[in-house]
Design brief:
Blueprint: H1 2-41, H2 47-59, H3 62-65, H4 70-83, H5 85-98, H6 102-118, H7 121-142, H8 146-158, H9 161-177, H10 180-184, H11 188-199, H12 203-213, E1 223-228, E2 233-238, H13 243-251
Antiparallel strand pairs: 1-2
């Protein structure tokens, strides 16, 4: 009975902490958004001041986007789409393929699909490009090819001629197992050049091009979103244990 009571208490604590974090996020966003709209309505305000007001809104998302709770990350992505499409596109592009939660990846993919249809200009381009990577990544994951891809990178890193050739064979096998639709979503120019180098016996060149071709795909891990206010940028680091490690990774 004691264990059941403790279990209920632990679950209640998790729910309350999540709700508290989301309420705080909502308050910060609403307050920052009000300031941003006020700043935008003032024709005399400088561009830098306007960007600062915008950064207050987008910066409020970062703790939730880096939360250990996947539900918080998923909700933050959905809110970001409603409030700042450019920021949402950048973050969703990262989390759609890199996050270790299927729920978060699905939410990010849905956000990208929406932005690719409804947004304009650079935001639409970012979303469309990321959506192609999202589709390829899903197929690689469904066909259990991500481990093989990481193994190929390991062989290539070894640097010996035999290991490099093994890496190329593995890269080519991964590409071969993709559906025609997924292969078309890869960089066709780079794929053609890699194949030509392989056919000509230029193994080192082929290995490098295959690596670049598939650089966006790999095993998922915890993602820490690092927001830099000026200039406006979003960074991430996979498989870091703490935000400090993620920051150190970005600086290196």
């Amino acid at each position: 009975m004691g264990d059941q009571a403790k279990d209920r208490w632990d679950k209640a604590k998790i729910v309350s902490e999540t709700l508290l974090a989301l309420v705080g996020l909502a308050f910060t966003i609403v307050y920052g958004l009000a300031n941003f709209r006020l700043a935008r309505s003032n024709s005399e305000i400088s561009r830098s001041q306007l960007e600062i007001s915008r950064s207050q809104v987008t910066g409020a998302f970062v703790p939730s986007l880096s939360s250990q709770d996947p539900k918080q990350r998923a909700i933050a992505i959905a809110l970001a789409e409603a409030l700042d499409k450019s920021f949402a596109a950048q973050v969703a592009a990262i989390l759609a393929t890199k996050d270790d939660s299927q729920e978060v990846r699905a939410t990010a993919g849905s956000t990208l699909s929406s932005l690719a249809t409804t947004a304009e200009g650079k935001v639409q381009q970012t979303a469309t490009s990321a959506l192609r990577r999202f589709d390829v990544m899903n197929e690689l994951r469904d066909k259990n090819l991500l481990g093989k891809l990481d193994e190929a990178r390991g062989y290539q890193a070894a640097g010996s001629p035999t290991a490099t050739e093994t890496a190329v064979v593995m890269y080519r096998d991964v590409v071969k197992q993709l559906s025609p639709e997924a292969r078309r979503k890869l960089d066709q120019r780079l794929l053609t050049e890699a194949e030509k180098d392989y056919a000509a016996g230029h193994i080192d060149a082929a290995a490098l091009k295959y690596r670049v071709l598939l650089v966006d795909y790999g095993q998922a891990g915890r993602v820490y979103v690092i927001y830099q206010e000026a200039p406006f940028e979003v960074f991430y680091a996979c498989k870091a244990r703490t935000r400090e490690e993620a920051s150190a990774w970005e600086e290196s």
